[in-house]
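Below is just one:
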Amino acid sequence: MDEGLIGVCIGERRTITIPPHLAYGEEGTAVLVFDVQMIDFHNPSDNTEVTVTYKPEECDKLTKKGDFIKYHYNGTLLDGTLIDSTYVNYIHQTVKYPNGFA
């Protein structure tokens, strides 16, 4: 699959056909066919972009390494399509990042 996605652009559609020996090894007998539409992608060398959209006037306590953090989020694609939300599911996330923030 990796080879079939090299050079693809957002919005592009491809049919990727993988022969049995690449899909299952020497014992493979079935050809795999994937119809793929590229929706979005990122590169591990991309930087994280943070935009503060609201901060209370009085903010005496800031997060630090080792804190337990309880938060809500909306996860979207770049075009704004909602893919996950703790607001919609009414479940908050609690995470501890002992070695810093991920």
Notes: Residues 20-24 form the longest helix (5 residues). The chain is about 15% helix and 25% strand. The chain has two domains: 2-37, 63-102. The beta strands are 13-18, 32-37, 68-71, 74-76, 82-85, 93-96.
